[in-house]
């Protein structure tokens, strides 16, 4: 396929920014069509003047306003008549950065059979309502495609291979108005077109009119999603088959936890607000199909859950019946995980009261804080550590720093503070354990603060710092970094786990691991193994007591 | 200067529990890690914190110079001295 791109810009009454855009595009001087979708006279005049000025520009007119979808169709027809191979679509309101056109076309040239899709990086100017709407759409598109590949279905900055679009037009009807951008993308995905995503800056101009009609367009978007979900159900076997085809393992397919972690924290904020608004029961109902979907599509997670149950069955005679875990067991495990997510929101919102915590030795922590003696607290992806926020809310002297391995911790911090300014756990992101990090941690301990780390998963920070110990009867790697940290800080190390009994009761297990861990140079590894083993034994005990609250869904054992 | 060098030698021995090593055994210009005294990365962090406690030094997160400072007792002494003179 020869690469011969053109630009198509649908325009309805946007005249403010269009001249500036043409100015920017004139450097590339690519063939370009503006579709005047029945705009008013002023806009029409501006467009015609531009057509005069630039030789590479044509303006095609609709007598009456027909919608974005029809405008794009006009554009695609023009592109095909002139034998252009690819259409770059860009919005006329100047919200996209024309400087990125070159980048989009570059990617498209390298991947001529792919759609190149912009993913907006919003600046502060985006209105909250629009943001929320986008998030809901993302959710539906994920369901409709049974995939996370479409990162942003609404961004009007993209490159289409023309042939594929006509293949689609022959088969299916695509939305005529604001529903066009999303619908065409889902359909092209169903056809099996590969996708490339590119980050791009997006600006909402206060002075620009928006052609988004709140009632009609929201209604047509709702109707579109209804159709698309039905379309997904019809194509379900094909989509699932495509996902599971062993010879076409797509490296781009991202695990949902990663999507969640990496995804915008604005999304988390909105989800928590919705949670606050609708309440826990409604949230559960909404969550159910989502969890069920992840259950169906997450082969790795399902197998990990089964493996965990098998280990548990071998480890404790009590769970003999889990030797061959049933679908119900695995599903229960998934739902327990989903609910723990909601409990996390409850903890963030301050809904979990201190009375809910059954914590006989809580005074240990409070006293240490009062005496300005810090400690390292090691937890695990077991139960729900977030609920101890309820205690911190009561005792302002208890300061907990959560050491995490995610990026953008400041953003998450600010979102959590927005959700509930009272409950503050400082989240500290570390990329590596270096001198500066160690010194910062030492400062915290000297101030009598606590450092909390989850110590059951290996991280990229120091993959070589690990010990293989027996966990539920089989060998698994555990990181030693958290214990090394405790040792160099010369402070006590405690294990802490919060397990859920029911909605209003959480048992907190706080137990000392070491007063001061000494790692003799000659047998460091042995000393580390010893303490990791004690830690793992405690996890095992709680796994037996709360079998569904172990939340690691990837292959854990060696 | 030589006073700080001696202090740091003692600090290294004490904070890292180096048995069978006396201050006289440590050559201040020899490398501290891997070769020389044969200390490892955990020792480095421990020593850093001991220095922080004693001399209130601070280290920037991505300072490449850190490696340089910790390469020998002499360099450490120089770093502590320059840091304290900056502070005063």
Describe this structure in words.
The complex is a heterodimer of chains A (558) and B (88). With 558 residues, chain A is of the alpha/beta class. Chain A folds into three domains: 249 residues, Alpha-Beta Complex (Spore Coat Polysaccharide Biosynthesis Protein SpsA, Chain A), CATH 3.90.550.10; 86 residues, no CATH class; 192 residues, no CATH class. Helix content of chain A is 47%, strand content 17%. Chain A contains 19 helices and 16 strands. In chain A, the strands form three sheets. A seven-stranded mixed sheet of chain A has the order 3-2-1-4-6-5-7, with helices on both faces. In chain A, strands 8-16-15-9-12-10-11 form a seven-stranded mixed sheet, sandwiched between helices. Chain A has a two-stranded antiparallel ribbon with strand order 13-14. In chain A, strand 2, helix 2 and strand 3 form a beta-alpha-beta unit. In chain A, helix 10 packs across helix 11, helix 11 crosses helix 13 and helix 12 packs across helix 13. Chain A is elongated, with a radius of gyration of 28 Å. Chain B is mainly alpha-helical and 88 residues long. Chain B has a single domain, classed as Orthogonal Bundle (Non-ribosomal Peptide Synthetase Peptidyl Carrier Protein, Chain A). Chain B contains four helices and no strands. In chain B, helix 1 packs across helix 2 and helix 1 packs across helix 4. Chain B is globular, with a radius of gyration of 12 Å. Chains A and B meet through helix 17 and helix 18 of A and helix 2 of B.
């Amino acid at each position: 396929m020869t690469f011969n791109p053109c630009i198509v810009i649908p325009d309805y009454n946007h005249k403010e920014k269009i001249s500036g855009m043409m100015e920017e595009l004139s450097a590339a001087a690519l063939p370009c069509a503006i579709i005047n979708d029945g705009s008013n006279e002023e806009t029409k005049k501006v467009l015609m003047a531009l057509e005069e000025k630039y030789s590479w520009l044509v303006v095609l007119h609709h007598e009456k306003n027909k919608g974005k979808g029809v405008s794009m169709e006009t554009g695609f027809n023009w592109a095909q008549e002139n034998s252009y191979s690819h259409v770059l679509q860009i919005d006329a309101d100047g919200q996209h950065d024309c400087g990125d056109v070159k980048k989009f076309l570059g990617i498209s040239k390298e991947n001529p059979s792919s759609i190149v899709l912009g993913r907006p990086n919003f600046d502060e100017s985006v209105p909250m309502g629009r943001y929320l709407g986008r998030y809901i759409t993302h959710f539906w598109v994920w369901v409709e495609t049974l995939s996370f590949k479409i990162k942003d279905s609404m961004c009007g900055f993209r490159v289409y291979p023309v042939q594929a679009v006509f293949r689609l037009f022959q088969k299916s009807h695509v939305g005529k108005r604001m529903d066009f951008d999303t619908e065409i993308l889902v359909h092209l995905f169903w056809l099996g077109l590969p996708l490339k995503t590119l980050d791009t800056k997006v600006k909402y101009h206060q002075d620009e009119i928006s052609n988004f009609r709140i009632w009609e367009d929201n209604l047509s978007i709702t109707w579109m999603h209804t159709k698309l979900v039905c379309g997904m159900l019809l194509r379900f076997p094909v989509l699932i088959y495509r996902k599971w085809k062993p010879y076409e393992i797509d490296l781009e397919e991202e695990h949902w936890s990663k999507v969640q972690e990496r995804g915008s924290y604005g999304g988390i904020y909105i989800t928590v607000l919705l949670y606050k608004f609708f309440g826990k029961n409604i949230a559960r109902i909404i969550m159910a199909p989502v969890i069920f979907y992840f259950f169906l599509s997450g082969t790795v997670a399902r197998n990990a859950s089964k493996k965990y149950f098998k280990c548990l069955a071998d480890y404790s005679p009590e769970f003999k019946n889990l030797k061959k875990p049933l679908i119900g067991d695995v599903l229960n495990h998934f739902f327990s995980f989903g609910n723990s997510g909601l409990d996390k929101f409850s903890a963030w919102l301050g809904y979990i009261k201190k009375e809910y915590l059954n914590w006989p030795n809580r005074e240990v922590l409070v006293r240490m804080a009062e005496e300005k003696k810090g400690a390292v607290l090691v937890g695990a992806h077991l139960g729900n550590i977030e609920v101890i926020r309820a205690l911190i809310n009561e005792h302002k002297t208890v300061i907990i720093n959560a050491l995490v391995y995610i990026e953008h911790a400041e953003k998450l911090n600010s979102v959590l503070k927005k959700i509930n300014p009272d409950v503050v756990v400082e989240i500290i992101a570390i990329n590596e354990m270096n001198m500066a990090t160690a010194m910062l941690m030492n400062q915290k301990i000297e101030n009598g603060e606590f450092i909390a780390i989850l110590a059951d998963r290996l991280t990229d920070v120091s993959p070589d710092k690990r010990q293989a110990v027996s966990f539920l009867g089989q060998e698994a790697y555990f990181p030693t970094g958290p214990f090394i940290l405790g040792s160099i800080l010369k402070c006590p190390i405690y294990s802490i786990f919060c397990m859920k009994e029911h909605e209003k009761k959480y048992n907190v297990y706080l137990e000392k691991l070491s007063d001061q861990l000494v790692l003799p140079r000659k047998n460091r590894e042995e000393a580390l193994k010893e303490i990791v083993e004690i830690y793992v034994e405690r996890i095992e005990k709680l796994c037996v007591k709360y079998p569904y609250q172990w939340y690691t869904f990837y292959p854990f054992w060696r | 200067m030589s006073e700080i060098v001696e202090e740091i030698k003692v600090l290294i021995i004490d904070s890292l529990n180096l048995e069978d090593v006396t201050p006289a055994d440590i050559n201040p210009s020899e490398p501290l890690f891997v070769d020389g005294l044969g200390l490892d990365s955990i020792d480095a962090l421990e020593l850093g914190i001991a220095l922080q406690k004693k001399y209130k030094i601070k280290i920037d997160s991505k300072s490449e110079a850190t490696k340089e400072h910790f390469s020998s007792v002499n360099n450490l002494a120089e770093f502590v001295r320059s840091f304290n003179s900056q502070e005063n």
